Here is the input.
Amino acid sequence: MPDLQAMLARSYFNKLGEEFKTRNFSIYAQWLGLLDIILCFALGISNLFHTTLVIIMSALALVFGFLLIFIEIPFLLRICPLSENFTTFVRRFGDNRMRCVVYLVMAGVEWASLAFQATSLIVVALFLTLTGFCYGFAAVKRQEFTSSKMLGGGGVAQMIV
Here is the structure.
């Protein structure tokens, strides 16, 4: 009898492989966005201990990570008690063009941290830029925003928000 854990892992990776074969850049961007959240929090916290003005950029990375959680995982808008203004603000980023803009603006802010000191925030800036480009390619190719099936199903993000 095959190992259940191995079967589940194969199933998971098969579904993930199918998603990447669709060549839908919004799905690529969504996965990069989840990585961005982790990087913003991890590197934002680790760079808070600098003695230069990098502390400001680290704090901004933490704010960006918090904002990205609600942009990339929209069902949290329903279950977390948030102000109506914040919810309305986050809902503006429901299509590929607006997500491209917000990611590239965040990336630009983090790239500006180089003016103070070269730190690991460059990684945050790089991945925010890559995610912005993926959303930009999806917008240019007129691909509709599609959420990953692995993260809640195709189009679920649009229905919930």
